[in-house]
Amino acid sequence: ASVYSPPGLLRSDSIPEVGEDAAATVGMAETLSEEEQDELRKELAKVEEEIQTLSQVLAAKEKHLAEIKRKLGINSLQELRQNITKSWQDVTATTAYKKTSETLSQAGQKASAAFSSVGSVITKKFEDVR
């Protein structure tokens, strides 16, 4: 009462698992010579040390930045206002904004002129009725 499965059709290794990826990496390390492995370990240590140093430098720069802002009296609310103002200036400098603004301005002027002429007509009709 066993079910026949053709070879390779239902193999569990067709989709690599996390553990299998790790096993493949270990297998790769075994193919490296001792000298290559030592060289890579040295490089790994060097890169880790550089990352640590950069993290410390970044933390010191951020602390210095905060101190400068504190001395200048710049707080989060002021920074937010400055960012919003800058963003708005960037938007108003775009060609699309300028064209839209000009179009709306022209439409407003035409509408004002139309209302003005309608008002003149109504005023004239009232005068004629009197």
Characterize the structure shown.
With 130 residues, the chain is an all-alpha fold. Among the domains are: 33-93; 99-125. The termini are far apart. It is 81% helix and 0% strand. The chain has helices at 18-31, 34-72, 76-92, 95-129. The chain contains four helices and no strands.
Structural features:
mainly alpha; 130 residues; TPD52 protein; 0% strand; elongated; coiled coil; TPD52
**What sort of overall outline do the alpha carbons produce when their principal axes are compared?**
elongated
Which stretches are poorly predicted, pLDDT < 50 over at least 5 residues? 7-14
The run of helices and strands is HHHH
Distance between the termini: 110 Å
Structural class of the secondary elements? mainly alpha
The portion of residues assigned to helices is over 70%
Protein name: TPD52 protein
Family: Belongs to the TPD52 family.
GO biological process, one term: B cell differentiation
Keywords: Coiled coil
Summarize the structure.
This protein has 4 helices and no strands. With 130 residues, it is mainly alpha-helical. It holds the Pfam family TPD52.
Secondary-structure blueprint of this entry?
Elements (H helix, E strand, L loop, with lengths): L17 H14 L2 H39 L3 H17 L2 H35 L1
